[in-house]
Amino acid sequence: MAVGVNRFTVEHPFLLGDNRHYTFYIWKNLFRSCWWARYLYIPGYVSCMLGVHAALWRAPALWHIMWLVCTAAVLVPSPLLELRYFTVPFFLARLHMPTSLPRLSIELAMYIVVNAVTIYVFLYHPFVWSSEPNQLQRFMW
Question: What is the three-class DSSP state of 138?
């Protein structure tokens, strides 16, 4: 996993070119803070892989393999860290996960919190770029 992180972590110029997106701050504050910071997240990567595997254990083996192949085909060649690239794989995986009312309630609460914070920052915390002093910029996905 460390070799993959070392060889295939690409910092695309557009990623750090626009400070109106979550991905800008994730990359700048977490991955770019020091040279070894990107390696700190390897245990999280492994636990997420195991968690997805555990959540999808009921799915047929062929579906599981095809989902992994298709997800890799979408995410690996993309040099940008964009949350929208994860939506289709997430929704397909979510449709195959077992559901319960407590799990759905927690998931709904997380969505509400993230979206409420995003809307709040968008509405109440505009900022100005020095290159466009007369234009208010707003934070967005």
Answer: coil
